[in-house]
């Protein structure tokens, strides 16, 4: 009997799942439904497009012919309005009902709105989709001043975009350091100095109380809770994602801040799976539930979900993700879960070289590297092998770290 698969979402998780399903099930019916108006594109590269460094062409990964060649039915500009797990159907905004044997939900999230006056004014931008990048790039051509809000990985993309476009600005952060949950002030200062060199000034212990607009409704000023005012005819906001779990509202699919899945990417319904940054998955390395929005993680989740949709428990999700930043003259990389753990170690080797490791129960669970990225593969190996190494921090922090310098048990735990 021919199996029918429906995938909601055509990001890297959904697209990877569709490709894997076709490889595993040559005769299956596969449908991909997305509310976006274009097929899969590279979310990593849209920041370079927004900077003005890339044209549109390299951003696209798949065009509609890619799906046609694989006999995958792609439905663009299609919003799913109802999911019926027990009836094995979904319904679209046009009233079309699609039946499925197995369903994958990979719908990601929507940028969190800043709950202050005039946050929806003309000139206030979020940065998540290719269309967002197009609007930002266009606006940057006429902007003279900018304010960026949100001291995380997307926020610094926005700050770097304003710098690349030659627009001076302020970068407002609630704490005393960029990405303060993963970096100490010492590590953060390397990032702060690089921003200042590009005419983006970090403003700490700040935020936005409200925006002021002109008579045409265009943003002109950001006012922080201290009453300080910052000129801004461009505003970028990146304060997090609201995951699109409302698509499952009214069902018995278990959700929290995301869709809860096991290590095989299956929900509490045996025929419903999820993948991508919307998932709260059982991290077999960390030993607890986790969430990760990195591109590589989402791609792998889509692949693993598809394999288990075909043959449940055939392969578990076991992945050490990483996220790199290429905005500066030095490289930056985070891996694993650098904001989690019960212990840490860090060291600064030079003005542009710093590293930090996070540990849980003596094992590495994540880290951040600035400058020299060469230790990452060694740290990841120790993570995958679940080695207890927190008692050897002095060795781990050596500038020329080598695993052979560690005192390890002869046999690694089974992966």
Automatic annotation (TrEMBL):
What InterPro entries does the record point to?
A: FAD-bd_OxRdtase (IPR050260), FAD/NAD-bd_sf (IPR036188), FAD/NAD-binding_dom (IPR023753), FAD/NAD-linked_Rdtase_dimer_sf (IPR016156), Rubredoxin_C (IPR041575)
Its domain of life reads Archaea
**Domain named FAD/NAD(P)-binding: which ranges?**
4-282
Supply the alphabetized keyword list: Dioxygenase, FAD, Flavoprotein, Oxidoreductase
Which coenzyme or cofactor does it need?
A: FAD
Could you confirm whether the keyword Transmembrane appears in this record? no
Q: Which residues form the NADH-rubredoxin oxidoreductase C-terminal domain?
A: 329-386
Instruction: Name the Gene3D superfamilies on file.
Output: 3.30.390.30, FAD/NAD(P)-binding domain
**An MF annotation (GO) of this entry:** dioxygenase activity
UniProt-recorded name of the protein: 3-phenylpropionate/trans-cinnamate dioxygenase ferredoxin reductase subunit
């Amino acid at each position: 009997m021919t199996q029918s698969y429906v995938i909601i979402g055509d990001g890297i998780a959904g697209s990877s799942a569709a490709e894997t399903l076709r490889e595993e099930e040559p005769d299956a019916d596969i449908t991909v439904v997305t509310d976006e108006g274009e097929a899969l594109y590279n979310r990593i590269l849209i920041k370079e497009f927004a900077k003005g460094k890339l044209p549109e062409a390299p951003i696209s990964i798949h065009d509609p012919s890619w799906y046609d060649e694989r006999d995958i039915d792609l439905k663009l500009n299609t919003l799913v309005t109802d999911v019926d797990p027990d009836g094995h159907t979904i319904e679209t905004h046009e009233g079309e009902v699609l039946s499925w044997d197995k369903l994958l939900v990979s719908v990601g999230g929507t940028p969190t709105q800043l709950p202050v006056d005039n946050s929806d004014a003309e000139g206030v931008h979020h940065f998540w989709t290719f269309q967002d990048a197009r609007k930002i790039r266009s606006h940057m051509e006429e902007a003279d001043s900018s304010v960026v809000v949100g001291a995380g990985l997307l926020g610094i993309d926005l700050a770097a975009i304003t710098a690349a476009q030659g627009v001076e600005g302020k970068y407002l952060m609630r704490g005393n350091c960029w990405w303060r949950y993963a970096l100490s002030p010492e590590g953060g200062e390397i990032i702060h100095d690089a921003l200042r060199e590009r005419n983006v000034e970090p403003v700490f212990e700040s935020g936005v109380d409200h925006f002021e607009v002109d008579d045409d409704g265009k943003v002109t000023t950001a006012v922080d809770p201290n009453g300080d005012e910052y000129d801004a005819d461009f505003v970028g906001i990146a304060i997090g994602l609201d995951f699109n779990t409302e698509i499952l509202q009214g069902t018995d699919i278990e959700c929290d801040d995301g869709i809860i899945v096991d290590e095989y990417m299956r929900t509490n319904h045996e025929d419903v799976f999820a993948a991508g940054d919307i998932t709260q998955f059982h991290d077999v390395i960390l030993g607890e539930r986790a969430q990760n929005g990195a591109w590589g993680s989402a791609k792998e989740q889509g692949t693993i979900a598809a394999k288990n949709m075909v043959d449940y428990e055939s392969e578990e999700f076991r992945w050490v993700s990483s996220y790199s930043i290429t905005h500066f003259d030095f490289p930056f990389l985070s891996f694993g879960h650098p904001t989690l753990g019960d212990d840490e170690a860090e060291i600064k080797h030079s003005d542009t070289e710093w590293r930090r490791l996070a540990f849980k129960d003596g094992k590495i669970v994540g880290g951040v590297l600035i400058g020299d990225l060469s230790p990452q593969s060694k740290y990841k190996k120790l993570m995958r092998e679940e080695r207890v190494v927190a008692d050897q921090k002095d060795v781990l922090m050596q500038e020329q770290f080598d695993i052979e310098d560690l005192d390890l048990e002869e046999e690694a735990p089974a992966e």
